[in-house]
Amino acid sequence: MNVTRRGFIKISGATAAGIAVSGMGFDLSPVKAHALTLKTKDAKETTTICCYCGVGCGAIVHTGKEKGRVINIEGDPDHVINRGALCSKGAALSQLAENKNRLTEPMYRAPGSNVWKKVSWDWTLAEITKRIKASREASFTLKNAKGETVNRTEAIASVGSAALDNEECWIYQALMRSLGLVYIEHQARI
Fold it and tell me: What number does CATH give the domain 44-97?
């Protein structure tokens, strides 16, 4: 066998590389491919708006069949504001729905008390209604100093939410104005 010095180095290098690769567990035999199934394959998709700031980015929420649990939230690529992108807060939206520390029942702390107690939704809504009605009746103005009809209350103010879309904002504004509120603001403007 006539092997030159250069040929010997080539053969030795190839042999060393082959031994090193085989020692790492590489197998050059054909491998069967396994496709992964997406966890959102059978999930229900619902569009929503991020609630964190006044921008109003769109998101798609995927809920599973098991009690409507949130399994994924991603940016909505068809939304005109964020075009599918979400900031770090928006990307963590699922923590709002899937959080063991999230309150799921109304809590009430009586004046002067330092203890919160669970109350029913019926009691809570009735109490809110009663307090709005009492404040409105105590401060309602039919006519101003010039005798002009104003039908307003200046004792109640409202701050809207960035989580509302245009249609919901319109309904909310109509409700507040029907109560006679003058001070109506929206979080996106603050």
Answer: 3.30.200.210
pLDDT one-digit tens code per residue, 67-97: 778 888 899 999 998 999 988 888 888 888 7
The domains of the chain are located at 44-97, 107-189
Please name the amino acid found at residue 23: G
User: 18-24: long-range contacts at Cβ-Cβ below 8 A with a sequence spacing of 24 or more?
Assistant: none
N-to-C CA span, the chain: 87
Question: Any bridge partners for residue 55, and if so which?
Answer: none
Task: Give pTM, 2 decimals.
Answer: 0.57
Q: How far, in Å, are 57, 154, 168 from residue 185 at the CA level?
A: 20, 13, 14
| DSSP calls for 19-78 | HHHHHTT---S-----PPPPTTTTPEEEEEE--SSSS--EEEEEE-TTTT-EEEEEE-TT
User: Residue 26 has which token pair?
Assistant: 């590489």
